[in-house]
Amino acid sequence: MIYHDPVSYEMWKSGHIEDFESTTGIFITSENEPEAIAWGEQIAQMLFERINASETNSWKSFGYTCWILDDWKNSHWKHCLEFFQSVNIHEIPGLEKMGSEAYVKWQLANGKITQEEFDSIEKQNAMFAEWMEKRR
What we know:
Elements: E1 2-4, H1 6-13, E2 21-23, E3 26-29, H2 33-51, E4 85-88, H3 100-109, H4 115-135
Parallel strand pairs: 3-4
Antiparallel strand pairs: 1-2
Helix pairs in contact: 1-4
């Protein structure tokens, strides 16, 4: 599923970065693919609302989509499949464990990045947040 966070979106709108979208995944157990896609879209909307609390547009209004990845074990996400949660239809995942911030914390906890790299990311995020506040 595709989503964005408010900081990257504002930076994109002001021309500071070229790409503001992020992706994440979730494993959904369902009877069929359309049902899984439909539930994935609802989860994506919930995640979008959680991350973008002041956003009035819907997740879909940005043209975002969900899709089923047939060969996920050999995908470009194979390095982080453990990050993705597994749910059944109508089961709400831990939204706090999804998104860019959660992914960075997961990387640190699982030895994918060092504390120094984590601190650098946190410092950069704080700078972006301060930049956004000054723009208001």
